[in-house]
What we know:
mainly alpha
Amino acid sequence: MLGLRRGTRDSLVTMIAAPTVWALHFLLSYVWVASACAPNENVFKSITTARIGVAVATLLALAFCFFAGLRAWREWREAGGEPPHDQPTEHDRERQMELASVLLSGLSFLAIIFTALPVLLVWDCR
């Protein structure tokens, strides 16, 4: 354990950070637009304010996922991150969690894009 740069706790936080940001982005996007269209009296009502807010939240969430993935990738590569990480050692567990962080960051990045597409492409409450 003395040879490790970081602990498993940091790897767990890094691993769940990007999916958590995606979940929060998903919740924010759909709740914001639903509340903008809530009375449903005028289905042609513009949701421009909500769309701009979702666009800003999307850019922030994408930047977070990108930099979280970049950090995990750098740490994985610095420690000689060539797979497989299948040995029951602290070093291999750490490498596996860093690789999972990279993959989850990429998946969350794509999920954020697909979450934002309907909100950014729809112009009114129809």
